[in-house]
Amino acid sequence: MPLRPVTFFKGGYYHIYNRGNAKREIFLGNRDYSRFLKRTVRYSDEHSISIFCFCLMPNHFHLLLKQTNETSVADFMQKLLVSYSMYFNRKYDNVGSVFQGRFQAKLIETDAYVMQISRYIHQ
């Protein structure tokens, strides 16, 4: 697989997003949203990732976060998405990918862009 074009570093702000495989829903009920959020909080604490805002939609999600130490955002996201995929596949007797490929990440380099992404996520 090609290398991810975004480099994660301590102090970096990132817009992270992904959607369901074949645009399918990844949250089918309230418990699914709750499970994803609880795991997001748990793993962000473990990996020292600060979550500034988020939006969970039936078929995709957005996160605005900051990497606060040397533990990579990629490690946090891998743990979160693998954990949620295992839960989802077990709960719904599903096989295969829950998400459409790797998560997407955009480095946010200015305060103005942080505000713009925050507004977008909160829409």
Describe this entry's structure for a reader.
This protein is 39% helix and 24% strand. With 123 residues, it is α+β, with helices and mostly antiparallel strands. The protein has one domain (13-122): Transposase IS200-like (Alpha-Beta Plaits, 2-Layer Sandwich). A 4-stranded antiparallel β-sheet has the order 2-3-1-4, with helices on both faces. Helix 1 (30-46) packs antiparallel against helix 2. The longest helix is centred in the middle third of the chain and has 19 residues, at 73-91. The protein starts with 12 loop residues before the first strand and ends with a helix.
The low-confidence parts are none
**SS element count, helices:** 3
> Which structural class should the secondary elements be placed in?
alpha+beta
Q: What's the story with the biggest beta sheet?
A: 4 strands, antiparallel
Domain module tally: 1
| CATH evolutionary superfamily | Transposase IS200-like
Alpha-carbon distance between the two ends: 34 Å
> Mean of residue pLDDT?
95
